[in-house]
Amino acid sequence: MDILDYAFMQRALIAAVLVGITAPAIGIYLVQRRQALMGDGIGHVAMTGVGLGFLLNTSPIWMATAVAVVGSVAIELIRWYGRTHGDIALAMLFYGGMAGGVMLMSMSDTGSNANLVTYLFGSLNTVSPEDVTTICVLAAFVVLVTVGLRRQLFAICQDEEFARVTGLPVRLLNLLVAVTAAVTVTVAMRVVGLLLVSALMVVPVAAAQQLSRSFAMTFALAVLIGVTVSLSGAVTSFYVDVPSGPTIVLLAIAIFVVLAVLAGPLARKRARGSATAAERCTLEVPGARVPQDDVRVQSPRPDTMTTDRTSGR
pLDDT of 204-259, one tens digit each? Predict the structure, then answer.
């Protein structure tokens, strides 16, 4: 049985590749900012957009994108101004978004529990040609932002104060990161699901960090791991008849565990290599002085320092 003979699997594999690229691409910035769970919160908010799409009989993906973008901007505003009760406001926003989505879907004529599960945990069978077009457009936006503005985004993720001093529009770039994360959530919800998309943003990045400390190499490895687990999960889901989202996430976690186990010996090996190189470059100092090392300074004779006082010289 050839998997590519089925049109729905062709669409699913295309969507899986795009999800594998976009999720780690924005996830590396969220990890650097210690906002690893931001994708999970946006996924809760996007559920309201899905329910609204079913209620208005429009595209759930585009409606979820609009609602997720509004929710991501609200999250950033709460992060800036919600000094004391920001965590409570975020909790109400996240769980209110999930409850609103379920309520709106139950009120629609076309919504059902089956549709709800496919958006929460992903389903390869439901990827339509229109979904593939939408995912391609949204994925292009994510790649354009994460790759084209990588230097600026890296600067604000590492040190916002330094980035502000250098003249970067920190608040605008923070909003752009939040909006890009919201778009990524809607890109991945068909394949991974709204509840599991945050894992695909974070776990490949964490796995890549086990092997590399440079930003560029971590970015490349995270995207490679993301594409690998997305394609492998899609193929496994087809042949074994299991949900695609949990399969992809479990494969990503398995790769992280393997790399974490291998990272210890590799780090010790690199440390021994660095120590050996340092020993080779060490300048040896003689342990004792020899007579030839002494430097004698001979003072000038007194007769050469006489001055002709009569001439005033």
Answer: 999 999 888 888 899 999 999 999 999 999 899 888 888 888 899 999 999 999 99
Spatial neighbors of 28 by CB under 8 A, at least 6 apart, are 205, 215, 218, 219, 222
Distance, in Å, from the CA atom of 118 to the CA atom of 126, rounded to the nearest integer, reads 8
Q: First-to-last CA distance in the chain?
A: 112
Closest by CA to 187, choosing from 143, 149, 236, 134, is 134
d(CA 101, CA 178): 21
Maximal CA-CA distance, the chain: 124
In tens, the pLDDT along 88-109 reads 777 888 888 888 888 888 888 7
Query: In the block, which residue shows the tokens 């890296």?
Result: 154
- Cα–Cα distance measured from residue 117 to residue 100, given in angstroms and rounded to the nearest whole number: 15
Q: Which two tokens stand for residue 120?
A: 């929460």
Is 96:164 a contact under the CB 8 Å cutoff? no
DSSP H helical segments within the chain, as ranges?
7-32, 38-56, 60-81, 86-107, 113-121, 129-148, 150-158, 160-165, 170-188, 197-209, 215-240, 244-280
pLDDT tens digits, one per residue of 255-277: 999 998 988 776 676 666 665 65
Mean pLDDT of the chain: 82
Q: Are 170 and 152 in contact (CB under 8 A)?
A: no
Residue 49 pLDDT > 70: yes
Structure tokens that stand for 97 in this block = 């978004």
What is the spatial distance between Cα 203 and Cα 223, in angstroms, rounded to a whole number? 11
- What pLDDT does 313 receive? 46
Are 182 and 138 a contacting pair, CB within 8 Å? no
Cα Rg of the chain (Å, integer) = 30
**Alpha carbons 2 and 91: distance in angstroms, whole number:** 46
Among left, alpha and beta (phi > 0; psi -120 to 50; other), residue 286 is beta
